Amino acid sequence: MHKPSLRLFVILALLLPVAALVSSAAWAETKLEATIFSYDGKDFVRTETTLMAAGQSAASTKLDPGSAAYKALAAKHSYTGPATLFGKDYQSYYAPLVGDDGQLTGAVFVGVPK
Predict the structure, then answer these.
(1) Tell me: the pLDDT tens digits for 14-33?
(2) How would you classify the pairing of strands 33-39 and 44-49?
(3) C-alpha to C-alpha distance for 10 and 14, rounded to whole angstroms
(4) In degrees rounded to 5, what are phi and psi of residue 29?
(5) How far apart are CA 41 and CA 61, in angstroms?
(6) pTM given for the model
(7) What is the edge-to-edge ordering of all strands in the sheet holding 33-39?
(8) Per-residue pLDDT band at 88 (split at 50, 70, 90)
(9) Closest by alpha carbon to 37, among 83, 106, 94?
(10) Where are the domains of the chain?
(11) Among candidates 102, 97, 106, 101, which has minimal Cα distance to 11?
(12) Of the residues 15, 30, 44, 110, which has the fewest C-beta atoms closer than 10 A?
């Protein structure tokens, strides 16, 4: 397992206890959304996601370059705050994924519907 994958594994492993704390009734009412983005030097592209767009997976769609989350991630900073994705409002958390060489390789997103 190379380093970016290990980091992603660690991030997701840290999120698991949070998901486990949510009761099944609360989970039914408040579904967490999550996305893993790749970054090609210009675009953050959803490679894996639970988000839906027009009834289909939002995989392969891009993060809006005009969004506050994009601006923070491009500067290798996390972003916490409101986000509107595919017509739905979320309280969101985005975190950059950076390789050992300091290069931005992607990002992760977790959102709670408002």
Answers:
(1) 555 544 444 444 544 568 99
(2) antiparallel
(3) 6
(4) -85, -35
(5) 16
(6) 0.76
(7) 44-49, 33-39, 104-113, 88-98, 79-85
(8) very high
(9) 106
(10) 3-113
(11) 97
(12) 30
DSSP one-letter string for the chain: --HHHHHHHHHHHHHHHHHHHS-HHHHHHS--EEEEEEE-SS-EEEEEES-EETTEE-TT-B--TTSHHHHHHHTT--EEEEEEETTEEEEEEEEEEE-TTS-EEEEEEEEEE-
3-9: which pairs have CB atoms within 8 A and are 24 or more residues apart?
3/99, 3/100, 4/97, 4/99, 4/105, 4/106, 7/97, 7/98, 8/36, 8/97, 8/106, 8/108
16: amino acid identity, one letter: L
CATH number of 3-113: 3.30.450.20
Q: Is the pLDDT of residue 64 over 80?
A: yes
